[in-house]
Amino acid sequence: MIFKPRGENTELELFRSLRIRKKLEVEDDNKFAYLEKGWLGEIQFDQLLLGLPNECLILNNLLLEINNSLFQIDSLLIALKKILIFEIKNNEGDYYFKNDRLHMISGKEIKNPLNQITRSESLFRQLLHELRFNMPIESHVIYINPEFYLYEAPVNSPFVFHSQLGRFMKNLESVAASGYSDGHLRLAEKLASLHITKNPFSRLPAFTYEELKKGIVGKCGCTFMEVANQNYLICPRCKELEHKESAVLRSVRELSLLFPDRKITVNGVMEWCGVISSKRIRGILLDNFTLVKMGKASYYLYPSEARQQD
């Protein structure tokens, strides 16, 4: 059972937006490519986990803290007799292991996933001890990309390569089918509650409101959407249609994430979206947000924000 879904990758989502709205530096563009590739690999592994029996508990994308140390777990599986930690890698190309270090075939050294998974397991073990929960922990680094090859891989390493995934998932099925207890369920609930939603490691490129090109970026991230008819917008590249209300709500969320201090107003949203009339925007905001009346300075709050102020 997927107890905690992966959710959205806000950092990646905003990178996609900024790439359309301004020209990124090469370093930032490379970071976007790295984030997107990693995210796609995690989604592929999620699809494999969906094929497991529902007798286990799966928590995706956990950011946790213990003793002032943050650590991230791509996927966590809780079964009756053990907990499994998965670190997902979507590298492609040829690599080699030498002196406990990982190198590209060109010789360039990159982060050693063994160090990452060892650190995550150690900190997670400390967290379990603090929660007074004792269970065996097993960790694996999943190389999801079929175009990845690692020379001189340690025989007893936790690596699982694409060619091994079929056998690995069959073995995982028997682990998942063992079930879980009420204690395991309480542990999953506690871990989900401890998840840190705002990633302090997130680093977006520098930008200002004035320099960003205005308009509604398509869901596909190709380019800006254009008016198709009275009710729909269309991406001129991929031809995907989206209802105007959905597109506006998505753009308001994007605006709020990029500029959390800016109030949501009809004029502000109209300027940001660019292709929707003020009348249509006012109706969409009234239907989906809470109006705070202050004359010409009126603005809108998300319903959850309005409840917090009551």
What does this protein structure show overall?
It is a single chain. The protein is of the alpha/beta class and 310 residues long. The chain folds into two domains: 2-194, 3-Layer(aba) Sandwich (Restriction Endonuclease); 226-309, Arc Repressor Mutant, subunit A (Orthogonal Bundle). Helices cover 39% and strands 22% of the residues. It is built from nine helices and 15 strands. The protein has helices spanning 10-21, 26-49, 113-130, 165-176, 182-194, 244-258, 266-273, 278-288, 303-309; strands spanning 2-4, 57-66, 69-78, 83-89, 93-98, 101-104, 109-110, 137-143, 148-151, 159-160, 226-227, 232-234, 241-243, 290-292, 299-301. α1 (10-21) packs across α2 (26-49) and α7 crosses α8. 21% of the residues are buried.
How does the SSE layout of this entry go?
Layout: E1 2-4, H1 10-21, H2 26-49, E2 57-66, E3 69-78, E4 83-89, E5 93-98, E6 101-104, E7 109-110, H3 113-130, E8 137-143, E9 148-151, E10 159-160, H4 165-176, H5 182-194, E11 226-227, E12 232-234, E13 241-243, H6 244-258, H7 266-273, H8 278-288, E14 290-292, E15 299-301, H9 303-309
Parallel strand pairs: 1-2, 4-8, 5-9, 8-10
Antiparallel strand pairs: 2-3, 3-4, 5-6, 6-7, 11-12, 12-13, 14-15
Helix pairs in contact: 1-2, 7-8
